[in-house]
Amino acid sequence: MKRIPIVLAVALLGLSACARRNASSDSGGAKGGRKILFYRSPMDPKQTSPAPAKDSMGMDFVPVYADEQAASEEPGSFRVPEGRLQLIGVKTEPAERRELIRTIRTVGRIAYDPELYRTQEEYLAALSAERKARGSSLADSDRRARSLLGSSRLRLRLLGLTDEQIDALGASGKPDAGLLLSSGKGGALWLYADVYESDLPWVRAGQSVEASAEALPGEVFRGAISSIDPVLDPKTRSARARIKVSDPGGLLRPGMYLDADIRVDLGRRLAISRAAVVDTGLRQVVFIDRGGGLLVARQVELGARSDDWVEARKGISEGDRVVTSGNFLIDSESNLKQALAGMDQAAP
């Protein structure tokens, strides 16, 4: 019975000796072919030791290898223990090229447009007069007819019609009766919506629109932008868009207000999640995960924005894994300041 404690003691001594030899080997600078430079506290990167050590909480310092140190010399880099990253729920996803769709939301009103109807009538009359005057022997008559036609065409342009739409009107030979009254059940109505100055660069004639009314829950009215006024309203800083919407059930009435969603196809672009961007007030920053707890704060130049994604024009490359969740927790005061300082020092 007395032999068991003696055997256990010998075994423990042997394990202790092995541990000392391993520690000595580690502190000597190599493990699996990787050179150890020093040891660092897992909770405070500023605390280092040339040999294995423990912090005030009894946690072992982690070795820092030469290849890791070289990677951490990237401007804006800092290290967060992997355990802490898991604790705060850090999630990442790669920067990829995506089809971006932006939805511009506005409010519009169902209305008739007698002014546009009259202007269309005037243009058609001027077009007819100009055609008749072409064979006239009176040069002055031909000149006046062409001048009147040009003025009528200009008024249509000022009301937002494109040259293609004006040419189509001339080919049809009749104004749009829908500007004065509904064509009844299964017909179409005009929705007039304000597009704000900041959204105007993305809005074009022909884009699809989905509209809904609070008074008609569950109903969706689809249409397309017909024209956009070329002049901004100085009070609202917006331009009026004319949208022709289908009303298959005959549910819409003049004067009704509708919420309108304009769908803008931005094309295929290198994009990241909007949640990945940290706005410091002076710049937009994302955190790139290099693995092993190594993070890099990178200033980015952003472009077009969709509902969930934002175009990354500069600062990251396709395939870079960016932090999308927990980024506000990992940018601790010391780490973020050090990372931004490194970015500034690296700038030319």
What does this protein structure show overall?
The protein is of the alpha+beta class. Helices cover 30% and strands 33% of the residues. It has eight helices and 17 strands. It has helices at 3-27, 66-71, 82-87, 114-133, 139-158, 163-172, 327-330, 333-346; strands at 36-40, 48-49, 62-65, 77-79, 91-94, 96-110, 187-196, 208-212, 221-228, 238-247, 257-273, 278-279, 284-291, 294-299, 301-305, 309-314, 321-325. It has a six-stranded antiparallel beta barrel. It has a four-stranded antiparallel β-sheet with strand order 4-14-13-12. It has a three-stranded antiparallel β-sheet with strand order 2-1-3. A hairpin with a 7-residue loop joins strand 1 (36-40) and strand 2 (48-49).
Specify the number of helices: 8
Cα-to-Cα separation, first versus last residue: 76 Å
Strand order of the largest sheet: 6-7-10-9-8-11
Q: What is the residue-averaged pLDDT?
A: 81
In terms of per-residue confidence, which ranges show pLDDT below 50 for 5 or more consecutive residues? 1-31
Class of secondary structure makeup: alpha+beta
Cα radius of gyration in angstroms: 35 Å
Highlighted features:
alpha+beta; 17 strands; disordered N terminus
Short description:
The chain is of the alpha+beta class and 348 residues long. It is built from 8 helices and 17 strands.
List the helices and strands and how they pair.
Layout: H1 3-27, E1 36-40, E2 48-49, E3 62-65, H2 66-71, E4 77-79, H3 82-87, E5 91-94, E6 96-110, H4 114-133, H5 139-158, H6 163-172, E7 187-196, E8 208-212, E9 221-228, E10 238-247, E11 257-273, E12 278-279, E13 284-291, E14 294-299, E15 301-305, E16 309-314, E17 321-325, H7 327-330, H8 333-346
